[in-house]
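User: Quick sanity check before I run a bigger batch. Here is a single chain. Can you write out its predicted 3D structure?
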Amino acid sequence: MKYEIIESKHWKHTSGRTASIYGAVPYYNDNDSKEWEIVSCGFTVRNLKTGTVGIGRPPFKTIEEAQAFIAKFN
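Assistant: Done. Predicted structure follows.
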């Protein structure tokens, strides 16, 4: 097995801006942190051999779409 399905998440600001959960936190202090939350935005895959998350495309909307992808490439 090369891929596993994981829930895709990102930081979301009250203004609608987004940021990756795989980098630095997007806020500077405790007050600013109250305007950010981690939200789920579909499903993606993790490559078990390299640890890479995602495949260079937006997340799959359903788990069935992600399962179809890994069925093809696993």
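The first strand starts at residue 3 and ends at 13.

User: Great, the batch can go ahead then.
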